[in-house]
Amino acid sequence: MKAGLHGRKSRYVKAGLHGRKSRVVDEGVDALSIETQLDRGHKWATVEGYDVAAEYTENVSAWTGKARPQIDRAMDDLIAGRIDVLWCYALDRFTRRGARMILEIMDQPASVRPWIIFDHEQMNTRNDAYRLPLIMLAEMALQYSDRLSKNVRSTFHRMRESGDWTGRAPYGTRVRAGTRKLEPDPDTWPHIMEAYTAVGAGVSLRAVAVMFNERGVPSPRGTEWASRTLWAMIHHPAYEGLQVAYDGGKPYAYRDAHGHTVRAFADDAEALPADLVRAARTALSGRSFDMQGKRGTASAELTGTMHCQGCGGPMARTGKAYRCSRHIRGVHCPNPATVQAHHVEPMVREAFLAYVTALDPADPDDLDTWAEIATRWKLHTDPTIVADNREATRAVTDLEKRLRRLRDDREAGLYDDDPADYARRVRDLQDALKDARDNAGDTGVVNLPDFAGMEYEELSTGLMRVSTAERRALLSSAIAGVIVNRAPRGTQRFDPDRVRIVLVSGEDIRR
Ligand SMILES: [Zn+2]
Q: What residue stretches are annotated with the Recombinase domain (predicted)?
């Protein structure tokens, strides 16, 4: 027994306090903060001389219509006797079940009825006189909540129509302070630009993901970059500056009542250029297989390296084995091969390690092989180089063509009256060609990859520590292909002789 503040004797009562957070919206909800609500509850408990044994706070607003498990927990505690009385800030914060919940409580005999205090209404469940007012107020609160929910939804609709951004700003953008318009986020927008540019230049999503991961570029969710993240990014209308709506969680460009798209970027904020967006999406539309529904296949260690001896086609990893892709797709293969991943993958790793560690970075005889490995490795580690290279190579071809045309023209007698002009033109083109060739990396210098000259142990450990994608890139830098023969009918045991490993030097490893 203990005395209350006002000297009243009161038995030991464990009280629970319930409050619900609400948000201030345009319609002007009475949105007393949860702290203020609970403060009031604590004051009440002090005055009554009760101990506060639990606080139940709902984080979800009334109008979202979501389940509020805290009130259920409070009711459970009340019924189980963990608390004797539940204090609630207000009836309209208490339940979304309206009169039904109050009826369930008030219909019980007074002696066992859950004891709930509604502070704002100055009513409680112990007094039968409050039965009808509580039922009515609960039902009114429910209707108000429903109406509010509708108001909020139409507010969202109006905002969307006007191009105001209502959700979280997509990666690479931010909501401009004091407005509801998007603008590029200077920290992350460059990654968006880079991804679109690379993909538009023909770099695969996977290669971009590998590049971003290796550079430690922060990803939207703080996890590793993956093809599907980039795929979604390339298709997100917000980067064109457009307002979005969602269909099954997938964003699409929102259109207003007149069928027009709505700008979500601030007027002076620069979204991605339309041709950049188009180039990236067009590049992807040609190879959507890169990301959709084939995660297991695309991420396998030897994807792209394995070939079926029966048809010469690729093998895909499905489940625990690599199988002839054509056969899987129902295309005819005279001898579809299958091999368990746990048999073939260690073999290929072993071949890679033995081969690469036997090459000497200082031996001129090995230089050609290193050049080949370095190029293949580069393709995986820095796809921008590939894109740049493609550009540079195109420039070389272009200049060679022009030089040929110039010579043809002279053959045809076009420069007979001005040989000096011809000489000047040839010289210009040859200079340009030399620059272009330098630019394309035709310099004859081999930049060795990081793993050149590593000891077996070191490279072996490294190989197993990197991600599957990186391991695939490493292996395929030195292994040109792995060709698998079909197992003879009826054989159970794996025969390593079915596997042929071809190195980039053209050598062929057979056990
Ligand atoms: Zn096949």
A: 170-290
pLDDT for res 444: 45
In whole angstroms, give the CA distance from residue 252 to residue 243: 8
Q: Any idea how long the chain is?
A: 511
Residues of the chain with pLDDT under 50: 1-10, 23-31, 61-67, 287-297, 443-444
Query: Two tokens at 251?
Result: 């964003």
Cα–ligand 1 centroid distance for 345 (angstroms): 19
469 Cα: distance to centroid of ligand 1 (angstroms): 24
CA of 307 to the centre of ligand 1 (A): 8
Q: Ligand 1 center to residue 478 CA distance, Å?
A: 24
What is the pLDDT, as a whole number, of residue 184? 95
Å from CA of 421 to ligand 1 middle: 59
The CA 499 to ligand 1 mean position distance, Å, reads 14
The closest alpha carbon to 478, from 351, 344, 346, belongs to 351
Q: Is the distance from CB of 484 to CB of 411 less than 8 angstroms?
A: no
Cα separation, 299 vs 472, whole angstroms:
8
Q: Which domains does the chain have, with CATH numbers?
A: 2-157 (3.40.50.1390), 173-292 (3.90.1750.20), 293-359+453-511 (no CATH)
pLDDT of residue 289: 36
Q: How far is the CA of 488 from the centre of ligand 1 (A)?
A: 15
Encode pLDDT of 387-425 as tens digits: 556 666 777 778 888 888 888 888 888 888 888 888 888
388 Cα to the center of ligand 1, angstroms: 35
Instruction: Please give the structure tokens belonging to residue 282.
Output: 């067009």
Q: What is the pLDDT of residues 13-61, one digit of tens each?
A: 899 998 876 544 333 344 456 777 888 899 999 988 899 999 988 765 4
